[in-house]
Amino acid sequence: MKRTFMAAGLAVVLSACGSPEKGADAAQEGNPFLTEFTTPFGVPPFDKITLADYKPAFLQGMEEQKQEIDAIVKQRSVPDFENTIVALDQSGRLLKRVSSVFYGQNSVNTNDEMQALSRELSPLLSKHNDDISLNPALFARVKEVYDNQAKFNLDKEQKKLLEETYKDFVRGGANLPADKQEKLRELNSGISMLQLTFGQNMLKETNDFQLVIDKKEDLSGLPESLIANAAKAAKAAGMDGKWLFTLHNPSVMPFLQYADNRALREKIFKGYINRGNNGNDADNNKVVRDLITLRLEKAKLMGYDDYASFVLEDRMAKTSDKVYALLDEVWTPALAKAKMELADINAEIKKEGGNFEAEGWDWRYYFEKAKKAKFDLDENQVRPYLKLDNVRDGAFYVANKLYGITFTPVNNIPLPHPEAQAFECKDKDGSYLGILYFDFFPRASKRGGAWCGTYRSQTYQDGKRLGPIVTIVCNFSQPAEGQPALLSADEAETLFHEFGHGLHNLFKDVHYYGVSGVPRDFVELPSQVMEHWVFEPEVLKVYAKHYQTGEVIPAALIEKLDKSGKYGQGFATTEYLAASLLDMDYHVLKEIPADLDVMKFENETLGKRGLIRQIPSRYRTTYFNHTMGGGYTAGYYSYIWAEVLDADAYEAYKETGDIFNPEVAAKFRTYILTPGGIDDAMDMYKNFRGKEPNTEPLLKNRGLK
Hints:
mainly alpha; Neurolysin, domain 3; five-stranded mixed β-sheet; two-stranded antiparallel sheet; 9 strands; 6% strand; carboxypeptidase activity; MetalloPept_cat_dom_sf; M3 family metallopeptidase
């Protein structure tokens, strides 16, 4: 649902809060959520918020929104757009405010108490949401406005808000009979709790694994920076003199890439792919089985054959057939390319005198050797030129060249974590656009991956645009002692990707919460299109400077990067598509056996498509938080769907001969980044490009054609 009453992640939030009387009481209690934020730019006062502040603010936020809904329902005025649709859209401001901070902090700096509170709040918030979605008197007013909309003289944005509001009620069960609504409440509560449990189990499994090395010879092949970080991690864990490696990506991935010790590669690889599948108290097998069962029950209750049909109705793809058509079109050439890469890897093994065939824990290690043999390129040649601050400034440079915007460091404002950075973003005319936070490095209290969210979404207040408070969160390699953070090529690409999401949030200009979102399979377009600039020679020459000498990255190294750029796309595309297919296969099921073995299902569904054993799905079932934790359920295909769009969109720049063409950039901002969800997604794309996209640029971009 685009109209969200309670955030399941980083929510939108508005500065206004409860009534003056309640605000005054709260001020005496010292709860920061229940008074106006007086911080610069209205950012949350992270330094003053305590764990004890959340629950009272949630409870009061729910109560205030309940009163606001009651006021809408009980008014004697005939339902119209302002007194019903806008009033509903603007309700729950306090709840949005506390949700944004709590779920944001629970992702970047959690602890046992926060996780326990999230479990306590889950059923309360599920019930609160259902009390609104299933309120018959409220739906009657919404339906009356919807049925008589011709008489209200609505503009395009208002019409879209009305359409989305009505649709959300219908998809939320408003048309179901009372007994089925009661069942829907049960299912929603169960799904919410299972998704929460899945994510908490995954974090625990990731944090619990440790590979401790006490012999220096076992570090052979590893970069010095990785060794230094492992020593620092061991010391922090009370194991001074040893080296500690974890399942966080900046630790496990370079270990698999460079460690000469094959047995240790196997150990950490198996630890990684078996998260949530260890038969312990954090095992996710039953959680998955119960979750997909409840999702299917919900879909059938709502009149759909399977859960994917329910979800996709509200996406660009519309049907699972269209999703599978795209995935299958890319799968065949990707798998063929992966088999060619496997042959190269096995050749490297034989070259070294090995008498074994590559396994999953060998892929990254021998692929690195194969790439060096083919292109004379080692990732460690590139890292010295990818100083984190420089890459960040390179993203700022691209945004300035495209749109004229600027980013200025902001000091002395509260930060979501002490390691975070803050920047003020201004438009080309000097007007304020919003605040952008960065939080770059992993820690045990932070979930894995990279994402962009908001502590306050863009909105309007008293007729004036209220700028968003955006946060970009990553898990990049920690800098070695006394050294700056140096990124891998993949990490640099990730920074540009999340920055693209950030620009989408910063440029958005809508008046209502209900039209601020875009379909899941469109949302990755603004992020993925930014990746195209990261290794453009013109851009590299600006930001890719050696961290010690300041030397600009040599042209010869840029040429090697360019030539090797498509090598490895067989592996990367296949592991991604495997996860996308797995996600869809679970959610097109029309019956789920009570004794379903989810790992057997995974092996069979991917095995029948010919996935080679050396390439596991990017996310195996028991740690596939994108789909089992919610957010990308029946939607992990969205990245490749959006890549069709972004590859075609970048062609619009290249066709002009200028990757910073101001006219193309202006159109992209106007038609893609600014409107939120006011227009249908494909209409937005066609407004920008003048035509629908095709898959040719994607296949060419990935080297699959």
